[in-house]
């Protein structure tokens, strides 16, 4: 998908009620978005899929919902007050500000594009006999560019691990990176910027305490770890899951809902015995990848990226990257957090956060493996993959076009549209009868406005998998026409079979059973 199509997707998302710019009647608020009626349904379906996969399928994982406001000492203990920074750099000519690491990553992405172009040219040249794996390991240009990427990643990791801001600027200069706006190399120094929003809590501003909007949901899990363990009589290994809002004062927020200042996370912290962390780290990497692939967005759209620079709390970290319209970017992170968080909270709070292991007869601070995914990025992954402009050849040879959102049926905002062919002769009444029967189990939409063709196009545009049309024959034989979004095929089925068809095609169960 190119930039032009991505712009069309953003416009489509607004036109059909998926995502609106926030506060739009006041000219908007930068990098903040509202979810419309379709977007809210899609988002809720994604959250339900995640929650059921983590909490319902795993007997040793439970869910909580912690507060957004937390004691300010928590963020000192977690390292966010001192170390939650982004390296920023300005271009003096365009006056635009960038994240220094993103500039380097975008440079790497351009080299990766060169590799992919070489691969595609070879694929076209050799056809079915093309061996992609062999080509990637033997072609001189591919090998040269792969080597360049490895060297740049190594240098990037070095400067970030050393927090060497001067070397960071020099790396950008050495790579000959130009400002995307001005095209110049006139860069300022790199400096750090803390990403947390602060506010005040208290009845009188002079007496108020400075507190922070949480930049992640994980700390709400850690400070409740002992509460959950004791009240739930949990034994290691066990996990705590949470879905909730988080806030980061992103200076360089961009790419629609990919990077926002207010966003939603789905996080699970898995508490384990020290020494078993790498086994569980690999387990959750594979389980989470399976969760993504079950949606059918395309297996080739996912890849693992192991971190060269580890966060202060981690001894292993990897991203599941997804091929967004603007390239492969992080969709989910899996981290082995060691015992950093619980040990730090023990130290700062003065409260023991130990686990007594009945098998070893000892008390210790558990290690943690984390899975963390952005709900909004997941929405963008689904929408960008689903959007398609399709040409249709009619029976008379003319060509028509439609925009169709091929959203996985289990995630689709509307599962079925119920449509009387015309607004008279008892057809609306029969359609309402069907609607009232199915709406208790499935999100359905009743539509009687415009021609049946226009109504089909409207449902295609919001990703509705099935449309059911009630005609005059229905009143005689209790049969309806069901039309399938992806193929546009139609067939007559008994009204009594609609529930079974829906349960088979749109049930979340179909996704969840693939994970067992």
UniProtKB/TrEMBL annotation:
It is an enzyme of class 6 (ligase). It catalyses: tRNA(Gly) + glycine + ATP = glycyl-tRNA(Gly) + AMP + diphosphate. Keywords: Aminoacyl-tRNA synthetase, ATP-binding, Cytoplasm, Ligase, Nucleotide-binding, Protein biosynthesis. Its EC number is 6.1.1.14. GO terms for biological process: diadenosine tetraphosphate biosynthetic process; glycyl-tRNA aminoacylation. GO terms for cellular component: cytoplasm; extracellular exosome; microvesicle. Residues 175-420 form the Aminoacyl-transfer RNA synthetases class-II family profile domain. ATP binds at residues 248-250, 258-263, 330-331, 374-377. The keyword Plastid does not apply. It comes from the Bacteria. It is found in: Cytoplasm. Substrate binds at residues 99, 216, 263-267, 370-374. Its main location: cytoplasm. One of its GO terms (molecular function) is glycine-tRNA ligase activity. Belongs to the class-II aminoacyl-tRNA synthetase family. Catalyzes the attachment of glycine to tRNA(Gly). Homodimer. This is Glycine--tRNA ligase. It comes from Acetobacteroides hydrogenigenes.
